[in-house]
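User: Assemble these into one structure.

Assistant: Restating your components, then the assembled model:
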Amino acid sequence: MMGVLVVGTVTLDTVETPQKRVEDVLGGSGTYAAVAASFFGNPVRLIGVVGTDFPQEYTDFLQIRSIDLEGLTRVENGKTFRWGGKYAEDFNVRDTLFTELNVVTDFHPVLPDAYKETPYLFLANDPPQLQLSIIEQASNPKLVVCDTMDFWIHEEREALEKTIERVDILILNDSEAKLLTGESNLLNAARAILRKGPQRVIIKKGEHGAISITESSFFSAPAYPLTSVVDPTGAGDSFAGGFMGYLASVGDVSEGSIRKAMMYGTVVASFNIEDFSINRQKSVQFDEIEARYRELQDAMRF
Amino acid sequence: MMGVLVVGTVTLDTVETPQKRVEDVLGGSGTYAAVAASFFGNPVRLIGVVGTDFPQEYTDFLQIRSIDLEGLTRVENGKTFRWGGKYAEDFNVRDTLFTELNVVTDFHPVLPDAYKETPYLFLANDPPQLQLSIIEQASNPKLVVCDTMDFWIHEEREALEKTIERVDILILNDSEAKLLTGESNLLNAARAILRKGPQRVIIKKGEHGAISITESSFFSAPAYPLTSVVDPTGAGDSFAGGFMGYLASVGDVSEGSIRKAMMYGTVVASFNIEDFSINRQKSVQFDEIEARYRELQDAMRF
């Protein structure tokens, strides 16, 4: 069985939507990605850090999902990363209310020996220096995929460029792709990113789906059409996690498998959006994932 | 041969982009749609109105495209509809600089007898009362497709609702779909439109493509990936015109043909964007259309 190693944040989130407010719910890029990857039956390992305030029920949930937590560091007397965000009426605008890095500030993860040979490595949103250190500790991974965000493009561009040089696939938002390259045309932005090192760039466009671009291929994946948007937090990480989980399950990174993986990522992200935190994922069955996958197949057939 | 009847505006446009400004170039919803439909080899008839200031070279161009101009009224001593618009850096924002309706104000077209039995009827952007009058004069068309815009939703909602009741397919922008229905979720907006009468709604999302929704089907078409955006004016009308032209060429309105027609519309629109006015369409060959169609097929295959 091919494993997936997810490196990312594990956080306590406070999220406000026009309908509801939730406090200190389980969140973080690592959480969303690992949970998404765990749907595909392969070992999922999570590298992250929490404080002693991290609720036992959240740890229990991750373990129930069969996520290996040997790499989840618990800092004594530390406080877990906390993030607060607020969505406007149509969910297209999100304001960050607060970001308390807490235990993440001094986190320098050492890969457990058992993790070093994990073939599928996903570096979810994290400081680029941390991402690079993981790449350097990993032992010949089959695929290295990296996400990032506007904050690191602004604050740590040099370190980020060094990390990007070393990854096979960079996943990021459309606005981040434009910010990283200074290109206002998305296709030009994607091509500029390919020149920085990755063989492939996957650009997430939220409700408009995602595109994948290499030197010689272009693929466009629509989003799953949803009427019940409750909380989009973590959708991008769920997309990436589902993408990695599917790839690990087939053990193949061909163009065909990459495209299917994007569609599975799209489906897992669609469930994520239907409730706060990872609540919807608690009840999702694999046949529901397959059903939405088939719906998307039909929605793209002509 | 199945004909297409296009009813829409024929205008003289002044367009400003960050790169260039053009004045009194051939434009209008009817022009773009008719030119797009004319690529598919079927008779295309155009209902519209111009003034005596309408340049002969523009009339000549439409005739070279084999567009039947019996329905193009020329008002003696009248001035052609003029529109001016300005695009911002990334082409996503357009400001209307001026709109001079001129001869359109008192235009009450009477369908020439030869036009009445045209099976494919496309009502491009026009006052909804005018659109309804055409529907009432047409003799049992096989397919009635209607476009509209925010101006009519604001100013002539009642008349527009009456027109919408009578059409098979409504084509409009995402923001217009939301405005027309008061729904912020696009899928809910589409469903609300279906309850107003049309069997199908096609929502144009600009650079994010278009979706088609019926009671029982969902189709998502990406935009053609372009790096050379010169002037997006008329892209939506070109999409609709290509859509109608393809349908007329196959003489079929099945779900399968509708989907292919959306892809052909997407391709014709992509050429339109590569130059001002209909300049790019002057040189496009059908094998170029087929080549982009195949590229899109590949970009959606998984």
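The mean pLDDT of chain A is 96.
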